[in-house]
Amino acid sequence: MSAHFTADPAATGSAVFPVRPEWLTLSAAFADEVPVIADRDDLVVSVAPGAGGGAPACFYPHRALIEVDGDHLRVDPATVDPANLSDRARYAPAWGALTHECGHAKHTAWEPPEGAPPAVVAAAMLLEEPRMEAAHIRRRPDDRHWLRACVQGIVATDLHLFADPTTAPKMTPADAAHTAALLLGRADGGVLTHAEVYPVARVVEDVLGAEVLGKLRTVWRQALRTADDAGEQMLDLGRRWCEILGTDPDSTSPASAGTSDPSGGSPGPGAPATPSPLADAIAAVLGSVAANVASEKPPQDPAAVAAAAEEREAAAEREAGKMARRVFAIGGPRSGDTRTMATRPPTPEECTAARVLARALDTAGMRERVAVRATSEVPPGRLRMRGVRAAEAQLAAGAVVTAEPFTRTIRTPVTVPPLRVGIACDVSGSMGWARAHVASAAWILANAARHTRVPADTASVIFGRNVRPLTHPGKPPTEVTEFRANDNYEDIPRALDALDGALGLSRPGAARLVVIVSDGKYRSDPRRDGQKKLDRLRASGCAVLWLTTSANDTPLDGATVHVLTDPTTAARAIGHAATAALRTAARRR
Q1: Is 180 within a domain?
Q2: Lowest-confidence region among 72-76, 110-114, 388-392, 409-413
């Protein structure tokens, strides 16, 4: 029988009291979490050094008691907060042991009857280990991580792997079968992976042979499909297990069944105890599982994750707002090569382009009125006789008349979503081709927003070593602002922050578009940070258009790339993208 599951009604537990107050506090904290895990509210938990009956944890079903050995906690008990899911990773093996015993409390709903053959009971309880864990993760999939975290301690205790070298598994059929049930059975149950247990599977097959191992696998797989309270079926599987191994059902020591391999049997008197290949394989597998668990991301508290995400978003918004004030209110740092030049009056072609874009935005924001069917007690509308009869029946019965026999179709207009567009132009030395075209496009877009009936707001910046405004939000320029392109750096993260803070590009509720004009040839730091900013905008629903002139350029990932064969069409490309963004937002409404 398992060392951590005691079905003996006379068992009283092994915790030693009194203990330090922090262990009593921790026991109460663990007990508060157990009802959710075990789906029972009658369990008592005791966490203390030396508890667990020699195992990491133990369940006493007749006392509804779970003991956890505090020596496996390995952290200061006064600092443990099990109510916080993120805290459990610090003491994952101890929490996994508690979870394992909660699985017994919920799913081991049968007891061996009095007089049942000892070896059969032991085999059935052996099969219960993978069966119970498989049932538990079907009910609570996230607990798989914690069950994996305690495999090393639980299985090593059941196999006496580290306690005494003389009792470690030998190259015998009984030890191989015992190991197969605990490790290969857990792999078939979904707690471990077959790749993780392969070293043990190979040694076990060498000891048992493929035929015997196949028969045992059939038994434990049938156990995995057995109901929680099907004690008779589990005992039948225990009998089959004993028959396959040639174990005497009345034996009180089923581990002695089978023929020992001379090279792996018990050492003679005075001979040193050497680990068998089976023990070495078990230790390697358990160590590998522990390493894999340490590298896995533990289950997260959804509320804590959401709170952390909200805090990160709030911090990002504060950073964007600060950058927007620095750029659009102050104009950016006074030094550096990132500079604007003189202004000029717009050309007649630019004025025409602004009016054409305004009409396009108006058209894109329009949708046909939505038809809504409504009912009423009185005209106007079409009379439905079914509704009339329902009203008459209600009236005859003396009930309140709720029938509405008249129907009509009402067409209501759909609210046009607002539009927010930001433009960021790279002004490093390789971007000379963009100077005149982006300056013109920024003026066209800003003045189109002034003429359109769609609520629209735009802004544009240039970015090099610094970030400077080209057009301001809510202030359509009367003249076109030109700029230089001779900088030696590309601070795209701050450019995106400035546009986001000024226009709210990361806030839902509008059609949002950011246009980046650049060849994408950045240093590693601005590229990495700029990608994070871009990913955040895209995740919020903001469309991203990247304008360049060469297929060999390197835009950031996730942007919709448009290669300009003719740079003079930059304003047209930006207008089409803004129209498409507005049309998409209107369609979603």
Answers
A1: yes
A2: 409-413
DSSP for 121-189, written as a single string? HHHHHHHHHHHHHHHHHHH-GGGHHHHHHTHHHHHHHHTTTTT-GGGS--SSHHHHHHHIIIIIHHHHH
Which residues, in sequence order, are bridge partners of residue 513?
Answer: 421, 543
- How far is Cα 145 from Cα 303, in angstroms, rounded to an integer? 19
Range of the domain at 388: 370-412
CB atoms within 10 A of CB 374: 11
Q: Do the domain assignments include residue 305?
A: no
Q: In the structure encoding, which two tokens stand for residue 450, read together?
A: 């002034």
Distance CA 587, CA 589 (A): 5
pLDDT tens-digit readout, 362-421: 877 655 555 667 777 778 878 888 888 888 888 888 888 888 888 887 776 656 788 999
Residue 304 resides in a domain: no
Two structure tokens written together for 16: 């030693």
Please, what is the angle between helix 194-208 and helix 210-224, to 10°?
A: 130
Report the domain count for the chain: 4
Q: Does residue 306 lie within any of the structural domains?
A: no
436 & 556 share domain: yes
Do residues 29 and 130 both lie within one domain? no
Task: Annotate 382-443 with DSSP letters as a single string.
Answer: EE-HHHHHHHHHHHHTT-------EEEEEEEPPPPPPEEEEEEEE-BGGGGGGHHHHHHHHH
pLDDT score of 580: 85
> Do both 133 and 24 map to the same domain?
no
What separation in angstroms does the CA of 209 have from each of 70, 179, 276?
Answer: 41, 14, 18
Closest by CA to 506, choosing from 378, 286, 321, is 321
Domain end residue (candidates: 71, 90, 107) = 107
Q: In terms of domains, do 148 and 250 share one? A: yes
Q: Are residues 89 and 120 in the same domain?
A: no
> d(Cα 400, Cα 12) in Å, to the nearest integer?
67
More confident residue, 378 or 312: 312
Cβ partners under 8 Å of residue 438, min gap 6: 423, 425, 460, 470, 517, 570
Provide DSSP, 46-92: EEETT-STTSSEEEEGGGTEEEEEGGGT-S-GGG--TTSGGGGGGGH
Nearest CA to 537 out of 484, 576, 581, 471 is that of 581
- Write the single-letter amino acid at 51: A
- pLDDT over 90, % of the chain: 60
Position 412 scores a pLDDT of 65
Alpha-carbon Rg for the chain, nearest whole angstrom, is 36
